[in-house]
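Q: Please design a sequence for this.
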């Protein structure tokens, strides 16, 4: 059985990957006989918070720090927004896919989905673009595509 959900993020996540491996090794040492992680905490040490912290170590395709991107552009959406702020189990996939405008498994799918969303915002009339904060989203999409916003 393969993965069912994905969010593609283009960049260098070498440090994230290394830290995730270290975290996994630590978890194996801490794991109780029933498989429970004694460090788990819904607010401070959950799958969502660990994923967010690990991804924050990456560098996006155009050199923007993932930490900076998430802190300055997407922090409210991820941390305090309605979806993630509720701490509903498995809501992370929705929070990440909406923040990064895709649910792609491959680079090609990623680029196609982001370009489609970009076209939708570019095709809006003036009034609709103001309602949907098109310039804000276009700025973010440009960063994710590795272009200068």
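A: Design:
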């Amino acid at each position: 059985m393969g993965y069912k959900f994905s969010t593609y993020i283009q960049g260098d996540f070498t440090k994230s990957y290394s830290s995730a491996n270290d975290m996994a090794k630590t978890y194996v040492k801490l794991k109780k006989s029933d498989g429970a992680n004694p460090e788990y905490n819904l607010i401070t040490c959950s799958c969502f918070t660990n994923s967010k912290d690990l991804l924050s170590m990456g560098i996006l395709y155009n050199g923007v720090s993932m930490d900076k991107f998430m802190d300055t552009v997407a922090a409210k959406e991820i941390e305090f927004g309605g979806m993630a702020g509720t701490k509903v189990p498995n809501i992370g996939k929705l929070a990440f896919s909406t923040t990064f405008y895709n649910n792609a498994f491959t680079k090609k799918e990623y680029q196609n989905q982001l370009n489609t969303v970009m076209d939708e915002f570019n095709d809006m009339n003036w009034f609709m673009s103001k309602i949907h904060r098109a310039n804000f989203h276009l700025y973010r999409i440009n960063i994710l595509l590795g272009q200068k916003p």
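Q: Thanks. Anything notable?
A: The longest strand covers residues 11-12. Helices lie at 14-30, 47-55, 66-80, 82-85, 92-99, 107-122, 126-131, 134-144.
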